[in-house]
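Email to the structure team, subject: Small ribosomal subunit protein bS16 model.

Hi all, the expression group asked for a predicted structure before they design truncation constructs. Nothing fancy, just the tokens so they can compare against earlier work. One-line instruction: predict Small ribosomal subunit protein bS16, return tokens.
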Amino acid sequence: MAVRIRLKRMGKIHAPAYRVVVVDSRKKRDGRVIEEIGVYDAQPDPSVIRIDSERAQYWLGVGAQPSDQVRNLLVLTGDIAKFNGKADAVSRVRVSDADKAAQAAQAVKDAEAEAEKSKAAASAKKAEEEAAAAKASEEAEEA
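Reply from the structure team: attached below.
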């Protein structure tokens, strides 16, 4: 089976949006797909390009051939360079200010959650150490 990574058209008549999909090359453009690995919307400025890098790497590794447009998107996201073995591959996708703000807010939430987890782990470790010290002192008093 010849597998391709190509675009599946979604959206309205004059407002197309696309999904980046892995599909058998003999299927229709909007037919049944094997897996959806991303989204591409060219309407807003800057365009929305979100591709799951791990899945794209997998499918390229097993021999899936990207279409011309998907190859251009993979070059922008840096996935083609990663697949070709370049360690310093960087995404050149422009991100809108709203997306940057959302990513920053998510990073703050993640940092707070991580701090809360580490604080809980530290307090649990301290309680465990205190319990061990109390047990050791009881054993010392009994002896």
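The chain has a mean pLDDT of 88. The first helix runs from residue 53 to 61. Ping us if the truncation boundaries need rechecking.
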